[in-house]
Specification:
Layout: H1 2-11, H2 19-31, H3 36-43, H4 48-60, E1 64-71, E2 78-84, H5 88-112, H6 119-141
Helix pairs in contact: 2-3, 2-4, 3-4, 5-6
Length: 142
């Protein structure tokens, strides 16, 4: 029972996950730290079904984090290792850090928008500010 309680605390919004998001999160939990390729083998699915879910779990839901990297024996490239947060406090600290980072990016973009720019450049900055605002709103909901 304690394991279920710990799992649910760590996952927070587990009820709102899509099927593949949940499967990838469970694969990470059971095999951590692990690479996207290891998750693919564990789930028996293609890499394109895993990497997008990793991005969502990391960037949008902030349920997983990087745990280093290792060399892929076939490609000799560095592969990121993934793990879920050790506890609620670690996740909260990561969310707060990302929030501050996004607020700083937004402030820099707004500052750049006040200089004399072409209409095209001003439009690009405005769109980037919108993207950052959306990410900030997602983080605030976590």
């Amino acid at each position: 029972m304690e394991a279920v309680k710990n799992r649910n605390t760590a996952y927070h919004n587990i009820d709102n996950l899509g099927k593949r998001q949940f499967e990838v999160l469970e694969a990470i939990r059971l095999n951590q730290p692990c690479t996207a390729q290891e998750i693919c083998r564990f789930l028996g699915v293609g890499i394109n079904q895993v990497t997008g879910r990793i991005s969502e779990l990391r960037d949008d839901l902030m349920l997983i984090t990087e745990a280093g990297s290792e060399v892929n024996q076939n490609s000799k490239a560095q592969n990121t290792l993934w793990r879920h947060f050790k506890n609620k406090d670690e996740r909260i600290n990561a969310i707060n850090k990302k929030y501050v980072e996004l607020q700083n990016i937004k402030a820099q973009l707004e500052s750049d928008g006040h200089i004399a720019l072409s209409p095209y450049a001003a439009n690009v900055i405005a769109k980037e500010i919108e993207k950052v605002d959306k990410r900030i709103k997602k983080i605030v909901k976590l």
